[in-house]
Amino acid sequence: EVQLVESGGGLVQPGRSLRLSCVASGFTLDNYAMHWVRQAPGKGLEWVSGISWNSGSIAYAASVKGRFTISRDNAKNSLYLQMNSLRVEDTAMYYCVKDNGSYLDYHGMDVWGQGTTVTVSS
Amino acid sequence: SYELTQPPSVSVSPGQTASFTCSGDKLGDKYVCWYQQRSGQSPVLVIYQDSKRPSGIPDRFSGSNSGNTATLTITGTQAMDEADYYCQAWDSSTGVFGGGTKLTVL
Predict the structure, then answer these.
(1) Cα B44 from Cα B104, distance rounded (Å)
(2) B95 touches chain A (CB under 8 A)
(3) Which of A100, A82, A86, A75 has its CA nearest to residue A36?
(4) Residue B69, min C-alpha distance to chain A (Å)
(5) Which residue in chain B is spatially nearest to A94 when comparing CA positions?
(6) Nearest to A50 by CA among A115, A106, A114
């Protein structure tokens, strides 16, 4: 079964850091681009960041650029999101998502994890 | 930054056709995807590259994209289709989602 499992969420104070991890099973990560997508409570989906199959292309939403860093370890079938200088508005469910292509272009996001919750509050 | 606009809600009776619009500047020049998110669940890709259906998605789901508007159509809507629907496109390798449309099946 194709599956993505996120971990690393939790409660953190504003200004602190958190690192999310995502482990893939049932498929080989290194053929596909990967993304992080978040959803604040009661709100819509927001694309956060994406990384191409070989890490050669990386992109961020304007809202997180300069604070978040996406990375991957294909040997470990894993995706990561380092989140620094966290803000209250970063509070959301964070989904790890597989692209059905290798690059950050026109393909769809075809496998979604169950998400991990990040709460930023003092 | 690029923006996609969706109406907040759509209502249909079972068996009828539900249509969802997604508007953006020259959207027809981009590929559009559509995602279904049922309450309490993770999103599911239902249409990619404007009109293609992933494996396992019923053929009552169809999509089109032209000009400034993309459209998702559900023909013969069922109660199980009640969900939020999001359009998504790429702008300079950056992902953009619409605000979502809530489908109510009356």
Answers:
(1) 18
(2) yes
(3) A82
(4) 17
(5) B42
(6) A106
Q: Give how far Cα A69 sits from Cα of A58, A65, A66, A87, Å.
A: 9, 8, 8, 15
Are the beta carbons of B48 and A108 separated by less than 8 Å? yes
The tens digit of pLDDT for each residue in B79-104 reads 999 999 999 999 988 999 999 999 99
Does the pLDDT value for residue A44 go beyond 90? yes
What pLDDT score does A57 carry? 94
Strands B18-23 and A68-73: unpaired
**Which of B23, B95, B71, B12 is closest to B61 using CA atoms?**
B71
Q: Distance from A15 to chain B by nearest Cα, in Å? A: 25
Residue B93 or residue A38, greater confidence = A38
Residue reference for tokens 């998702």: B72
Q: Which among B104, B101, B53 is positioned nearest to A100, based on CA atoms?
A: B53
Question: For residue B76, how far is the Cα from the chain centroid?
Answer: 16
Confidence check: pLDDT of A54 > 90: yes
Per cent of chain A over pLDDT 90 is 94
* Distances, alpha carbon B39 to alpha carbons A2, A17, A111, B15, B85, in Å: 22, 30, 17, 21, 11
Mean per-residue pLDDT over chain A, rounded: 96
A57 interface with B at CB cutoff 8 Å: yes
Q: Determine the pLDDT at residue A86.
A: 98
